[in-house]
Amino acid sequence: MKPGIHPAYGPVVFRDRAANYAFLTRSTMTSDKTIEWEDGDTYPVVDVEISHVSHPFYTGTARVLDTAGRVERFERRYGRRGAN
């Protein structure tokens, strides 16, 4: 790798405010805010709106849409149009 062209890669805490969950990982993201982690060290913290803890896909709370029923309801309401 060429020196001086890559961003710094180091430990960063990502904090999901919606779920009150944080995890320590490595990233090139930086932040002016810091947090003291469980190991006693201080790391930069990046606040995120959603993570695997609060996202509906991972938590199983996603709504399943009945698309066939919606199409039938639309056709009942507005009638089926014939091909001209």
From TrEMBL:
Q: Would the keyword Isomerase turn up in this protein's UniProt record?
A: no
A single GO CC term for this protein reads:
ribosome
Annotated InterPro entries:
Ribosomal_bL28/bL31-like_sf, Ribosomal_bL31, Ribosomal_bL31_B, Ribosomal_bL31_sf
Q: Does the keyword DNA-binding apply?
A: no
Q: Which UniProt keywords apply?
A: Ribonucleoprotein, Ribosomal protein
Residue ranges of the TM segments: none
Whom does it interact with, and what assembly results? Part of the 50S ribosomal subunit.
Family membership: Belongs to the bacterial ribosomal protein bL31 family. Type B subfamily.
Q: What is this protein called?
A: Large ribosomal subunit protein bL31B
Native organism: Streptomyces prasinosporus
Q: What is the lineage of its organism?
A: Bacteria, Bacillati, Actinomycetota, Actinomycetes, Kitasatosporales
Gene that produces this protein: rpmE2
